Amino acid sequence: MTGGATAGRLDSWERRLKAAVTVVPYVALAVSTALALLLDHRPDVVARTLLTVAVTALWILWFVTLHPAWSERRGLMAGYYVGLMVLVAILVAISPLFGFFAWSGYIHALYALRGRWRIAGVAATALLSAASQVGGFGIFASVAGVAIFAVVAMFNLGVAGVMMVLATITQQQAERRQRMIEELAEANDKLATAMAENAGLHAQLLAQAREAGALDERQRMAGEIHDTLAQGLTGIVTQLEAAEQAGSAPAEWRRHVRTAAQLARDSLTEARRSVQALRPRPLDGARLPDALSAVVEQWSSLNGLTAELLTTGDARPLRPEIEVALLRTAQEALANVAKHAGASRVWLTLSYMEDVVTLDVRDDGTGFDPTATPAGTGEGGGFGLTAMRERVSRIAGTLAIESEPGTGTAVSACVPALPR
After folding, report:
1. Fewest CB within 10 angstroms: 161, 171, 223, 376, which?
2. Strand, helix or coil at 166?
3. β-pair partners for 363
4. Is it the case that residue 276 has pLDDT exceeding 60?
5. pLDDT of 241
6. Is 149 in contact with 111 (CB distance < 8 Å)?
7. Looking at the whole model, is its pTM more than 0.70?
8. More confident residue, 159 or 4
């Protein structure tokens, strides 16, 4: 059951209770009047009875039936209840049978009074009811009558006290339930608002995630194209230029053409694997040191330069993205050496340590000023260095480049040693 439905039921119950409060006194007054008139037909008694009953009915009608909102005005309701008790006392004095109506004072005490006023109202109603039960106020003419009244009054006060306590507890519980329902309704409204805000944030995060994913995929494809097609095409152009220069030597010409064709096939294969997000072919079924050794050997044969690979530490399988990043870093570093360094020798060191793995690529070339390297895309190699940094940073690694003109270059990649 929802908080709104429960609150609706409680409000309906309170409306029925207030309706009973406004109906019961009239019924009790009518019954008491009928009994009193049947018992005593004297004209003067009938006149007094009808006049007092009319005033009493109008009193209840004005303060309770016609102005129900006045029930929240405690001072006014206290005055109303005092007037009601005076009228009840007059009616009991006219006829003890109005004791039936006197009982409605308990209902009005719970309806109109609060705190100590309620205790006083219940006590007054109990005394008037006791007076009606012992035959009216005439019993006070004798000591025995006073004693009998005292006994009956004590009984009425005890019963009324128990009834008041039970009614007060019930009312307090109802008020607590009402407050709890209101708090739950407020909490539900806040939760609904929070859920709506969360839905908006979720949609925003999804949109940002899609944009980030698209950007990351573009960066990945740009890096893969640079690492495969660009380097392959560079090698093919180099071999075809060498074949053109070896036109008078058929054997050399054919060797360069075969090498160019093989580079074209390898580049095509790597391009397809990049599009399908597969591991590079050198790593397919091979350990990282073996894959790097194959890359170094092929690069050395292609460029006619001496390159050596040294592996230190306990070589162990790493997560695929770690191994791919190190392999692509080695390929890019070797490509930069071939294009820009003018080196005669290259050293690669793959070091497995407890928490990290490092790859160092050093050459004895001309060197350069790393701070002057263009950061954007271009033929000067800027994109290669940027791609290396981005690829390594994506796996929480770092890339350091040390170089000075005339002293060679050292590229060092340090990545976490996350096991496969």
Report:
1. 376
2. helix
3. 346, 409
4. no
5. 73
6. no
7. no
8. 159
**Under 8 Å between Cβ of 89 and 128:** yes
Given this model, what pLDDT does residue 275 score? 56
Continuous segment of H or E residues that includes residue 357: strand 356-363
Structure tokens at 167: 């009614």
- Asked whether 410 and 361 are in contact (CB, 8 A), the reply is yes
Classify residue 388 by burial, with Cβ atoms within 10 Å: 0-12, 13-18, 19+.
Answer: buried
Q: What is the pLDDT of residues 99-147, one digit of tens each?
A: 889 988 888 888 888 888 888 888 898 899 888 888 888 888 888 888 8
Q: How many helices (H) and strands (E) does the chain have?
A: 12, 5
Do residues 348 and 307 lie in contact, with contact meaning Cβ atoms separated by under 8 Å?
A: yes
Handedness of CA 71, 73, 77, 80 (dihedral sign): negative
Query: Count of CB atoms within 10 A of residue 155's CB?
Result: 14
What confidence score (pLDDT) does residue 376 get?
41
Q: Which long-range contacts (CB under 8 A, 24 or more apart) does 64-72 make?
A: 64/21, 64/22, 64/25, 64/108, 64/111, 64/112, 65/22, 68/18, 68/22, 71/111, 71/112
Q: Nearest-CA neighbor of 223 among 393, 415, 384?
A: 384
Token pair, residue 33, equals 């009047």
How far apart are the C-alpha atoms of 68 and 20, rounded to whole Å? Answer: 13
Write down all domains in the chain, each with its CATH number in brackets. 3-141 (no CATH), 288-420 (3.30.565.10)
Provide the 3-class DSSP secondary structure of residue 286: coil
